[in-house]
Amino acid sequence: MTIADVVFPSAMERELPSGPKGLPLLGNLMDIKRDTLNFFVNMSKDYGDIVPYKIGTDRVFLINNPEYVRYVLTLNQRNYGKGKFFAKAKPLMGGAMVMSDGDKWLKLRRTALPAIQGKALPQMAEPIVDAVDDVIARFRGNVRSGTPLDIAPEMTKLAMDVVFRTLFRVNFDYDADRVYDALSAALGEVEQRIWSLTPISEYLPTRRQAAFRRNIKVLDDVVRRVIETRRADPNEYGDLLSVFIRATDDPENMTYTEKQLRDECINFVIVGRDTAAGALIWSLYLLSRHPAVERRLRQEVDDVLGGRRPTYEDVEKMPYMRMVLDEAMRLYPPGWTFSRMALEDDRIGDVDIPKGSAVQMCVYAMHRNPRYWDNPEAFDPERFSPERSKGRPQFAYLPFGGGGRVCIGRKLALMEGALVISRLLQSFQFDLVPGQKIEIEPMITLRPKHGLKMTLRDAEPAGEAAAAPVRESSAPAERPASAGGCPFAAAHSA
Ligand code: HEM
Q1: Ligand 1 pocket residues where CB is under 6 Å
Q2: H helices within 167-206, ranges in order?
Q3: Residue 43 lies in a domain
Q4: How many domains does the chain have?
Q5: Are 240 and 268 in contact (CB under 8 A)?
Q6: What range defines the domain where residue 350 resides?
Q7: CATH number for position 377
Q8: Is residue 494 situated within a structural domain?
Q9: In a domain, 469, yes or no
């Protein structure tokens, strides 16, 4: 008897369920390229709980039922590995935790966990607020000149800086702009590779490939410097970097080699950057379009902080902030999709899943599925109040994944979101520059394709803001146009 027999005892039919027709050799690749997000949203509406489709000649099963997601991520998680789409990111990400399976993954995860959650977390609040204060000081120039800012790269740089300051306690100038550019370009190349059906171009001596290698070297160099600086420093920091270095220097620990140390460090920059930035970018976008929500949040920030710097303890005291962040990540989940590969034949519900097939969770489609969400296109933070959350299936909401591989940085990301947004609101009003095209680009993470331009003004005190005229009265549905993107990238897991 298998786990599937226990979990799905009444399985009768065993035919492949229906799904969208594709083209020979390409499968549904052109449909995905044309309008990625709507392809998945429509599949979840038009077909059943499990929908087969093809990327090239590879069969993929899209899972639309939260109970089936639970099955893959928890009940039978041992049968589901990371799969071949992840291999495309190997030159950049090596064999880091996100890319690993089995015993190696477990060791890496157990080593990192205490240094990123639990007692380590409160120590990270201050460096986060320091990082956002540096950004605020720069933004003041824009307030004075009235020059609009593109919030997307700004928040991405900030999220990267947060990783360097919290997990590595870097206290030297690491040339953040250069590292930011190199990482952005390297991730862009990985996205291209995920898209292409044949890997031929990866082996050709093109300028693009040379640039990819150069960008990886920039990242390697900065990580080497971070490690060397720490090894020469007699102080104990108790951060993730010291945990990694201790494990590497331990002759008994065969999992951590110098290469593994490099891979883990680079990966934490990658996984902690665009995801956390996505949550900040889309939250600021939604707040600028929904003044009533923004006013209420501003009031909460004012009531709790009264103008002083936010601390770790304050985060818990701002429940509306958490609802806003949760709702922003429902509508715009930075990790909009992720996947697994069946290691052995299995069955989910009544559908046979042959060994080697990919199983995909489309977080974006699940978060907008009317079976689990009332009025799913509306921005309504109150839906995350304890009363209205009752009865919702757990895996209908999965911005951080779930099960044994649930995002290890989720507590950090939520704290970062609350500290950064509250600090920014204390300083500024954010107004969207009118007339700009806002399009969601679903690449490795969900990002605004043309950026997000905003004009900043000095913040008004909450009381005055509450009395100010409403900047926009209607609550528009939250579905900007979606651009074609990367089919299977999965949050920072590519
Ligand atoms: C809003 C921000 C974030 C979102 C939406 C997010 C989302 C996710 C998701 C969906 C997964 C699961 C992928 C899968 O199951 O294949 C994941 C895994 C992971 N995340 Fe995050 N993440 C965020 C922030 C962070 C941060 C700040 C860090 C650390 C600095 C981080 C580190 C990781 C790691 C290491 C994994 C792999 C865990 C494993 O394989 O065991 N994440 N994240």
Answers
A1: 97-98, 109, 163, 268, 271-272, 275-276, 279, 334-335, 338, 399-401, 405, 407-409, 412-413, 490-491, 493
A2: 176-195, 200-203
A3: yes
A4: 1
A5: yes
A6: 3-482
A7: 1.10.630.10
A8: no
A9: yes
